[in-house]
Amino acid sequence: MPWSAKAQALLQQQYAAVGAAATQALPVVVASLEEAVNNNLPATALLEKYKHRLQQTSDYVKAYQQYCWPVNSLDDYKLAPFHVLATEGKTYFHKPHEWHMQTIAEICAADEQLLHATPYMLVEIGDTESEQQAIGMWETLTASGKEGMVIKPYDFLASGEKGLIQPAIKVRGKEYLRIIYGPEYDSPEHLERLRQRKLAGKRSLALREFTLGLEALERFIAHGSLQQVHQCVFGILALESEPVDPRL
């Protein structure tokens, strides 16, 4: 779904504002530094720094523009479902992700104007060729401006030695991360800071929200009372209010 449809205020007040301000200011700075260098002043290092910042800003603007297009009617939307959560009286958590993707592709074929069947691949962990194919797919997607890929275990619900495995991990591309962390995030000093982030709390919250979501849906499908369903929903809302960096 285009950001211009669901987050117009965010685009105008955050992403576009940063891009517009930097795009207007940095060329003036670069021009002044070039003039200083031409006059034999010791500003070469500073000039190179601000040229790099200008390029980072350009990459930042291109990155968020990938997700914006005019929205005038329902024909301008593209929806890409990836789970069949439930139908009347039945959930599908016991089905593997491959079944979900195949089933959804059949559904999407009924209306390709609105629905988009998400491409996917099965990866055999430990098989070098299979892993390289997945890496190649990720590189192709991110090079074309896509956000990245979502890595999931084969089974919808998968467990390991320590219990339930995190159901999905987003592997974003370099340019999409620029939108999240800012135009200059890939400068060495910022990358070092970002590597120090603590992710354990976010992972714990994600697992708890996931299991509460499953329980809420099971109760709803079983025609449980709204009070029973809302117990889970309010639990999720409470977890969502935890002070965690939303960019993780």
Automatic annotation (TrEMBL):
Record bears the keyword Transferase: yes
Polynucleotide kinase-phosphatase ligase domain: residues covered: 1-243
Pfam family, one: PNKP_ligase
Keyword Nucleotidyltransferase found: yes
Record InterPro entries: PNKP_ligase_dom
GO MF annotations in UniProt: nucleotidyltransferase activity
Keyword set, alphabetical order: Nucleotidyltransferase, Transferase
Name this protein carries in UniProt: PNKP adenylyltransferase domain-containing protein, C-terminal region
Protein species of origin: Chitinophaga terrae
Upper classification of the organism: Bacteria, Pseudomonadati, Bacteroidota, Chitinophagia, Chitinophagales
